[in-house]
Amino acid sequence: MARSNFGVTLGVALVFLVLAMLAGAFWGTADLPWDERIRALLRLPDAQPNLQLIVWEWRLPRVIMVALVGGGLALSGVIMQALLRNPLADPYLLGLSSGASAAATAAIVWLPATFVASFGLDLLAFLGAMLAFMLTLGLAFQPGRGMDKLVLILAGVAISLFFSSVSAFFIHLADPHVTREALSFLMGSAAGARWADLPPLAIALPLGLLATWLCATMLDAVLLGDERAVALGVPLPVLRLALLSLAALLTGLSVAGAGIVGFVGLIVPHMARLMVGAPHKRLIPLAVVLGMIVLVVVDLLCRIVLAPEELPLSVLLALFAAPPFVFILRKVRRGL
User: pLDDT category, 130, cuts 50, 70, 90?
Assistant: First the structure.
């Protein structure tokens, strides 16, 4: 694709992102008059204080949070699929989601509510995700030989199964009235997001995007195979460790922000490849923007489909991701 066509594609995607975020701020479970919504969004002097509260303290932080989560998961998916050379690689492949869910479930079930409120469920979930990642790296690293990508995948599966069993065990023992919050986290939700929750991911995502984009040429070389990449001068062990750590950080922060949100990191990179091809200079920025659009739109639908009730993010994501996932599987089978 010519550079001009890529610029148009990215520009159109950015316009859609802005429109989707405005729609997320305007629509929700509360039915507000249109003129009042505009006044509240613009913070005009005659805007009602309670409507400003809804728009600026409830909806906008949530919309920005899901946009950041979608972008972070999409970028993590691009990194994972490139470094592991696996089109079905997912940001949660290293056991991050299971570690986060086990930590969150344990905190809800076993720790005092005051302790959880003081530290925040998102922080505890992030620490659980990072613990799972460190355990996966520890199992995959071989002294003198570095890190083998196949062993890394197997280690991630093993750690994921272990922490999933731990979560199930905690939920089984817990009081049914206590498990509702844990199940809400496991199914994904950005409800209750605050402005104070945004800075970690708002800082990590742009820096991670820049770092990954600067490594785009090396990621293209990795797709040719490990031996060719090394022959082309790519410091493969350092690159793999650095970018996988970045993907783990972004995924952990995303889990902390919106719970377990599947399919975005798996499907969105393939959507971007269909639009701009495989070169990572073009793929990386478009995938991030598309990930933001997808999750903002899905979160909006979760709020309005059964209003005033809300659907978990994973419900609609699984529904919309099923057809693209089947398409990807068919492509993988033809490539074998």
Answer: confident
Is the bond preceding 308 in cis, omega lying within 30 degrees of 0?
Answer: yes
Backbone angles phi, psi at 189, to 5 degrees: -165, 140
Question: pLDDT (tens digit, 9 = 90+) per residue, 6-45?
Answer: 889 999 999 999 999 998 888 876 666 777 777 777 777 7
Give the residue from 12, 16, 10 showing the smallest Cα distance to 297: 16
Q: How far apart are CA 43 and CA 33, in angstroms?
A: 15
Structure tokens that stand for 11 in this block: 């520009």
What is the signed CA dihedral for 60, 63, 69, 71, rounded to 10 degrees?
-110
Evaluate whether 276 touches 9 at the Cβ level (below 8 Å).
yes
Write the CA distances from 183 to 39, 70, 180, integer angstroms: 37, 21, 5
Cα gap 128→96, rounded to integer Å: 8
Which pLDDT score, from 0 to 100, does residue 264 have?
92
Structure tokens at 176: 């049914």
DSSP 10-22: HHHHHHHHHHHHH
Query: Within 10 A of 239 (CB to CB), how many other CB atoms are there?
Result: 18
What are residue 30's phi and psi, to 5 degrees? Answer: -90, 125
Q: Which regions of the chain does DSSP assign to beta strands (E)?
A: 141-142, 146-147
Biggest alpha carbon–alpha carbon distance for the chain? 69
